[in-house]
Amino acid sequence: MKKLVFLFSLFFLLTIHAQEKVLIKKTEITIPIGKKLILKPQIEENKIIGFEVTEEQNIIDKPDMMGILKNFEKDTAIDNSIDFTFCEAKMMNNSYFILKTIQKTGKKMTFKAKIRIKGSPLYSSTSIMPIGSNSLSFEQWQNNLDSIFLYDFELK
Fold it and tell me: Over the range 120-138, which residues count as b (16 or more CB within 10 Å of their CB) and which as e?
């Protein structure tokens, strides 16, 4: 009986760590590595109070960060969309884990984030720079990450 309970517990823990689903709970988003999301935020008095997923994609290849920067075209559209891509990327023969953000709310957006290193059950706080509207933002880490938790969104 103990072996059965142990095997079930082990299977349960592995399932939790192998999570590949995006989770959205009101104003909190958990994104597993290898996902691109386009969201439509619900805004109330410069606070984001909820999200609607308008598009979700799996990212299989490692995008080239220099190529993304080179090909980014800033526009003036304000459609209240937020584009998050959390994946492994490359830059000059080095691999990084990145959060690419493009938001088109017409205001500067701030939020907080926690990252989880592969194999760890805990999330650690990390810094995120404010993101201007219609701008491209990269946050990068060298650690082998498996998910990122985003919360406390504000528009200024």
Answer: eeeeeebebeebebbebeb
| Integer Cα distance of 78 and 128 in angstroms | 22
pLDDT tens per residue, range 112-145: 999 999 999 999 999 999 999 999 999 999 999 9
- State if pTM tops 0.90: no
**Other Cβ atoms closer than 10 A to 18:** 9
Tell me the C-alpha distance between 31 and 41, whole Å.
16
Residues of the chain with pLDDT under 70: 1-19
Quick one: what percent of the chain has pLDDT higher than 70?
A: 88
What is the distance between the alpha carbons of residues 103 and 90, in angstroms, rounded to a whole number?
A: 23
Instruction: Give the integer Cα–Cα distance in Å for 75 and 77.
Output: 6
Distance CA 53, CA 119 (A): 28
How many Å apart are CA 72 and CA 1, to the nearest integer? 58
